[in-house]
Design brief:
The protein has about 180 residues and is mainly β. It is built from no helices and 13 strands. The chain has two domains: about 40 residues, no CATH class; about 120 residues, Immunoglobulins (Immunoglobulin-like, Sandwich), CATH 2.60.40.
Length: about 180
């Protein structure tokens, strides 16, 4: 009678400031039992560690989620505080490279009332908004940070998307406010 067992390789991936690291550990064990009841065991173990440089072409550890939070700017202040989320119309929201080439289109999360750009590589971008119903337009620019005040002028906001905040900490989400008003 012959019994054979083998444990599969285990792979884990971790990431730190220097980039992702992959560790592979494998162990194969074979046990054979003959008619005499004798048992023999053979075991081999190997460990391989590979470090990917920070010049990783995927740059997945540097990408940022960008959320566009639309609000109805009822008092025309450009400030999002105290305003209702804008949900009258689903807007067309796109991100272009600074030279005007389409980079991606936002996904609208109806439950959260937010337009989302996923896995944006840090760089210079313009975000453009259009109301397909042509009933609304961007309101006045608010004087404050883009996380609390409308920054869009004539449907466009150009900015540098970065994964480092003002305090020097790494961030994975950037929120930008978008004030909308009804066209008179």
């Amino acid at each position: 009678m012959t019994l054979s067992s083998s444990s599969p390789a285990t792979v884990s991936t971790t990431s730190d400031e220097s980039g992702p690291t992959a560790n592979t550990h494998s162990m194969d064990t074979t046990t054979t039992s003959g008619g005499s009841g004798a048992t023999s065991s053979s075991e081999s173990e190997s460990t391989t560690t590979t470090t990917t440089s920070s010049k990783d072409p995927d740059k997945s550890h540097k990408k940022v989620q960008v959320n566009i939070l639309a609000f109805y700017d009822q008092d025309m202040s450009g400030e999002a505080y105290g305003q209702s989320p804008f949900s009258d119309v689903v807007l067309n929201v796109i991100m272009t490279l600074d030279e005007g080439t389409l980079y991606m289109t936002a996904e609208y999360d109806e439950d959260e009332k937010v337009y989302e750009f996923w896995k944006v590589i840090p760089g210079e971008y313009c975000i453009e908004v259009q109301d397909p119903s042509e009933l609304y337009e961007t309101g006045p620019i608010g004087y404050g940070p883009d996380s609390t005040h409308n920054q869009f002028s004539n449907g466009t906001y150009c900015t540098e998307i970065t994964n480092i905040n003002d305090e020097g900490d790494r961030v994975s989400i950037k929120n930008i406010q978008l004030g909308m008003i009804k066209i008179e």
